[in-house]
Design brief:
Radius of gyration: 22 Å
CATH superfamily of the largest domain: LCP protein
Strand order of the largest sheet: 13-8-3-4-5-14
Distance between the termini: 65 Å
Structural class: alpha/beta
Number of helices: 12
Length: 471
Amino acid sequence: MPALPQLPDDSPAESPAENVPADAIEQSNQAVSAEPDTSAAAQPRPQKLSIVRKLGWAAVFGLTAAVSAIAGAALVLAVPLPKSWSPTAAVPPLAELWKSGFRYQVSRPVNILVMGLDEARDVEGATPDDLVGRTDTMLLVRLDPETESVNVLSIPRDTRVEIPGYGLDKINQANFEGGAALAAQTVSHNFNDVEIDRYIRVSTNAFREIVDLVGGVEVFVPKPMYYEDKTQGLLIDLEPGWQTLDGDEAEQFARFRQDSSGDIGRVQRQQILLKALKERLLSPATITQLPQIVRLLQRHIDTNLSPEEMLALAGFGLQLEPESLHMVMLPGRFSDPEEFLASYWLRDDAASSRIMQTYFDTEPAAILAENRPRRSVSRLRIAVQNASSGYYTAQAVADYLQNEGFENVYIIPDWPEANQQTEVIAQRGDLDSAELVESILGAGEVAAESTGDIDSDITVRVGDDWLDLRQ
């Protein structure tokens, strides 16, 4: 079996979980005060509520890989609890949760490959032998202490790549052929030789159980979703509109493929579910569920992260603000029926290379290494979608952008719900261009995610705030 790409240092290799990168994780010399009311660690901000929000955000950060199996996110981390806290004990003060022993720190950027897949059989706990199938979700996650950010690249499972030793195939085949090691080699080989430091494989069962544990997630279902496959025992039946989905329904929402977007629509809905779960986990009430969440994750995860590394990553998560999470999708297109016998997602090499450089600090791909002029921003493909309470708003915004010099603006069908705030979605991860469009519009906020029109560079989902500016 091919080996995982190695870290620069010579770490012990007795077992994958013990392979701790000494240059990536260092022990802090700062002592933790025993006085929770005066500890700087316990009180990073003046308001007590900020501690609650940071703990909630850490839970979001910590659960991302469990969510990734269906809901597309980042990595699995168990938020450490005080050793004296048993599952039946009273909930400790928030300050105690805050200062519960993060002695390790992430000192350099770390790349983690996250894979979500079904367990091969019904067992108590996920082991390497249980997670040997084709991946349902694949994410490349970069934790960067220098920029205090987490960048997540969603790689569609039908992406056509070269699997070392096996030839061209869908990327979800790599784990089936050679496990986590070959999957990591495949990602590195096809994406600018990016280094993969660690991997996490997580069962899809984790997502359903976590959603149920936190009381469901509130999601806007944009259209009726119905699909039945009796051979697989699969039934998807969701009504449109706002609703609270339980674990099974949330999985239905993510897995629905019976529309023109196919597997790419799944990636987009995974990102929507992640945002919804994040809101649920930001609730202070979720703190009481942490012991159960930790035990749940332990049953459904296979990883070569050591306990020390998990502590460091969890501590890193505690430092982050929610807007520090950037989610992008691998740019590309669906293959045409006459191109291949199977259906593939064909990546846009130039756009993919730019994403790897911007979000993962890689060198340009060899085939694109020469300095090619960047396309003028006037040629950006901008999709405009009305999500306001007004009529003909999309046309008005499209005309406005065209008058400002953008040459490739088009209108897509209205969003089925009125939004107060305009979203400028960096569909292909081009935040600079998205921020330029936002500044020209004078309204809204930039979203680093891929939930817009899949053919666009930027999607503008126009809300009522733009109408307010024009009154």
